[in-house]
Amino acid sequence: MTRIRRGYIARRRRTKIRLFTSSFRGAHSRLTRTITQQKIRALVSAHRDRGSKKRNFRRLWIIRINAVIRERVVSYSYSKLIHDLYKRQLLLNRKILAQIAISNRNCLYMISNEIINEVDCSKESSGII
Length: 129
Prior knowledge:
By secondary structure, this protein is an all-alpha fold. It has a single domain (8-126), classed as c-terminal domain of poly(a) binding protein, CATH 1.10.1900. It has 5 helices and no strands. It has helices spanning 9-20, 32-72, 78-88, 94-103, 105-126. Helix 1 packs parallel to helix 2 and helix 2 packs across helix 4 (94-103).
């Protein structure tokens, strides 16, 4: 019986995985079993860290906004600012507010002062104060 030459499909699959892990060190880029394990591990880490990256950026934006707001007005905080923004139905997300806080603090001060003044006026007119 003559020898049967294997097809190219398995080899093509392995080379595709090898291309993915070509930058890994040692056996992680050379041995087929460890290559597949490391590819799975890398994809799991990438999926997990996409979510944590979003969380970390949101935390950073909140910290920046809070720092700039508390710098000017002592009794005013981030949570009060966001609450008043929602009450006035202003659609400014945290990313934009953090960019304003870094690039142009006076603009953020003006926004917060407008909100504070309007909230105070609405409290006086409703008789809360």
